[in-house]
Write a structure and sequence with these properties.
The chain is an alpha/beta fold and about 475 residues long. Helices cover about 30% and strands about 15% of the residues. The protein has 2 domains: about 375 residues, Alpha-Beta Barrel (TIM Barrel), CATH 3.20.20.80; about 80 residues, Immunoglobulin-like (Sandwich), CATH 2.60.40. The strands form 4 sheets. It has a 7-stranded parallel sheet with strand order 7-6-5-4-1-9-8, with helices on both faces. A 5-stranded antiparallel sheet has the order 10-11-17-13-14. The protein has a 3-stranded antiparallel sheet with strand order 12-16-15, with no helix packed on it. Helix 12 links the parallel strand 8 and strand 9. Helix 1 crosses helix 11, helix 6 runs parallel beside helix 8 and helix 6 runs parallel beside helix 13. The termini are far apart. The chain binds alpha-D-glucopyranose. The site of alpha-D-glucopyranose (GLC) has 9 residues, from loops.
C-alpha cells in the first residue's frame, strides 16, 4: 500500500514536472533552446529498418507502386513472426553506410538528420538490453551508435524518430484504438489477453536507452497518435517527456504523442493540422507531405516530405520529384517561416537510391551559392509575390535584408517589388555578387536584372533596406 502511494506520488510529480518544464520556461529560454533549429531550416529524414530489405515486394510481387512501404507488414497483414522471418535475412547493412548518409546530408546543406530508431514494425536499430528484436541481438551491431557517430563527425545535429506504435510487442493492446494501424487489427490477440502497461514500460525503457547512451540528442521525433488513443492513456506521454527532458534538457520534441487541437491537430488526415500549439505538448508541429498555404506566426513547424511517394525504400516507386520541385519547396517553406525535413529511404545495405543522391547534390549545389537566403532567415513580409518568394534577415543598425527568390525571371529585365518607394535600397545578385540598379517609384521598387536568369530553378537577389520593409498595400 505504502509503496503504491509513493509510486503514485512519484508519477504525479513526474507528470506535473513535465507539464511544467515546457510551460514554466520563459519565452526567452524557449527561444534560446529553439534557436539552432529555427536557424537550420533544412534537415534530412531517414526511414530505414527491416522493411528496407523487403523493398515493397512480398511473395515476389510488388505490394504497390505508390505509398509508404515502411508499412509493408501492415499492408500484407503479416504477423510479426512471419514478417521477421522474411525480412531479417535481407537486412544487411554495409560497414560505413552511415558515413555515406552523413556526408550526403552535409553536402546537401542539411543541418540535422532525423532517423528511425524504431518504426511501427518494432525493430530497434540500437543495441537494446530489454529487447531481442533489435540490431544488437540480430546483427551484433549498434546501428544507432554508428549513425550518431557518423553524424557528429560531419558536425550535424542528431534527431531520433521513434514510433510509439508497435507491431511487434506482445503486450501492445492494438484493439484499444480503431484509428491506429496494426497488421492484426480486428483479430483477437494471438497470445490471449494483453497488458498495455507492460508495453508502456517497454516503450519508456527503450527511450531511456536511447537518451542515455548516445550523448546529446537534439530532437525526439515521436510518431504517432490517434484521437481515440494518445497522450497519457496510450503512452504516459507527460511522464515520458519529463524523463527525456531530465536527461536531455535542450532537446526539441514534436507533437505526435498527442492528437489534439491544442497540439496542432484537427483530425486524423495528414492535412488536418491547426496553427495552434500549447508548449506543454510539444515544441513544434509536423505538417506531413504538404506545405501549409501560409506561415503560422508564433508556431514552430516542420514539413516532412518524401522524394518519391514512400518513406521506406521501394524498388517499385519511380515517382521522383524533380530538383526544381525540391529546391522550390525548400524556398517556399523558408518563406513561410518553417523547416523542411526531406526524406531518404536507403536500401537494406544502407546505400541511398541514386535518384535521391543526385537530388540532394543538386540541392547542395544551390545551397552553396544561395544558402544565406535560407539559413537564419525568417518569413517573407509579402503576402504574395508574382515571380517567386522572399525571406527576411534582420541586419545590424535596424537594416533589413530581403532575399528575393525569383522563380520566373522577368523577360523585360525589370524585377518589380511591391515596396513603398521611399525606401533606399541596395541590390545584388547572390550568385555573382554583382550589384544591380534599384529604382524606386510610388508603391514599387524596380531592380534592373541581366537578361538571363543565373539559375533556372531559383535566382536570388539580396535587397538591403535602411529600415523595416514598407509593403505596398494591394
Ligand atoms: C506517418 C507514417 C509513417 C512515416 C511518418 C513520417 O505517420 O505512419 O510511415 O514515418 O508519418 O511523417
Amino acid at each position: 500500500m505504502k509503496l503504491k502511494t509513493t509510486l503514485a506520488l512519484t508519477l504525479f510529480s513526474l507528470h506535473t514536472a513535465a507539464a511544467q518544464s515546457a510551460t514554466s520556461e520563459t519565452p526567452a529560454q524557449r527561444d534560446a533552446r529553439m534557436k539552432w533549429w529555427r536557424e537550420a531550416r533544412f534537415g534530412m529524414f531517414v526511414h530505414w529498418g527491416l522493411y528496407s530489405g523487403l523493398a515493397g515486394t512480398w511473395d515476389g510481387k510488388p505490394v504497390a507502386t505508390r505509398g509508404g512501404m515502411e508499412w509493408i507488414q501492415e499492408r500484407v497483414k503479416a504477423d510479426t513472426g512471419t514478417y521477421a522471418q522474411r525480412a531479417i535475412p535481407l537486412f544487411k547493412p554495409n560497414p560505413g553506410f552511415a558515413r555515406e548518409w552523413a556526408r550526403l546530408a552535409k553536402a546537401a546543406g542539411a543541418r540535422y538528420v532525423v532517423f528511425t530508431t524504431k518504426h511501427h514494425e518494432g525493430f530497434a536499430l540500437h543495441d537494446s538490453k530489454i529487447s531481442d528484436y533489435d540490431a544488437g541481438s540480430v546483427l551484433h551491431r549498434d546501428l544507432v551508435k554508428e549513425i550518431v557517430d557518423a553524424l557528429h563527425a560531419e558536425g550535424l545535429r542528431v534527431g531520433f524518430y521513434h514510433s510509439v506504435i508497435d507491431w511487434h510487442h506482445d503486450q501492445y493492446e492494438y484493439a484499444r484504438s480503431k484509428q491506429l494501424p496494426h497488421p492484426l487489427k480486428g483479430k483477437p490477440y494471438p497470445n490471449g489477453t494483453r497488458d498495455h502497461a507492460k508495453y508502456i514500460d517497454y516503450l519508456h525503457g527503450e527511450v531511456n536507452e536511447l537518451i542515455s547512451n548516445y550523448g546529446p540528442v537534439d530532437i525526439l521525433w515521436w510518431d504517432y497518435s490517434a484521437q481515440d488513443f494518445q497522450g497519457e492513456e496510450a503512452w504516459h506521454a507527460f511522464e515520458l517527456m519529463a524523463k527525456v527532458r531530465a536527461k536531455q534538457p535542450n532537446i526539441i520534441m514534436n507533437n505526435r504523442l498527442f492528437r489534439l487541437p491544442e497540439a496542432g491537430f484537427t483530425g486524423m488526415g495528414t492535412n488536418a493540422i491547426s496553427p495552434k500549439l500549447d508548449p506543454k505538448y510539444a515544441d513544434f508541429i509536423t505538417p506531413e507531405q504538404h506545405i501549409p498555404a501560409t506561415g503560422m506566426p508564433g508556431v514552430d513547424w516542420e514539413t516532412c516530405m518524401t522524394m518519391n511517394t514512400t518513406w521506406g525504400y521501394s524498388e517499385h516507386d519511380h515517382a521522383w520529384k524533380s530538383d526544381e520541385t525540391l529546391i522550390r519547396n525548400l524556398i517556399d517553406i523558408a518563406s513561410k517561416g518553417g523547416n523542411y525535413l526531406l526524406n531518404i529511404g536507403p536500401k537494406a545495405d544502407g546505400s541511398v537510391p541514386q535518384e535521391s543522391v543526385k537530388s540532394l547534390q543538386a540541392i547542395g549545389a544551390w545551397m552553396k551559392v544561395n544558402g544565406e537566403s535560407i539559413y537564419s532567415t525568417t518569413a517573407s513580409p509579402f503576402e504574395k509575390l508574382a515571380w517567386g518568394r522572399a525571406t527576411t534577415k534582420q541586419l545590424p543598425n535596424g537594416k533589413t535584408r530581403l532575399y528575393l527568390h525569383v522563380f520566373d525571371w522577368p523577360k523585360d529585365g525589370k524585377l518589380t517589388i511591391p515596396l513603398a518607394a521611399s525606401t533606399k535600397a541596395k541590390a545584388r545578385l547572390l550568385a555573382s555578387g554583382k550589384s544591380l540598379k534599384v529604382a524606386a517609384e510610388g508603391q514599387q521598387i524596380t531592380i534592373a536584372v541581366p537578361a538571363a536568369a543565373p539559375d533556372q530553378i531559383a535566382s536570388v537577389i539580396a535587397l538591403d533596406l535602411n529600415g523595416a520593409p514598407q509593403i505596398a498595400k494591394p
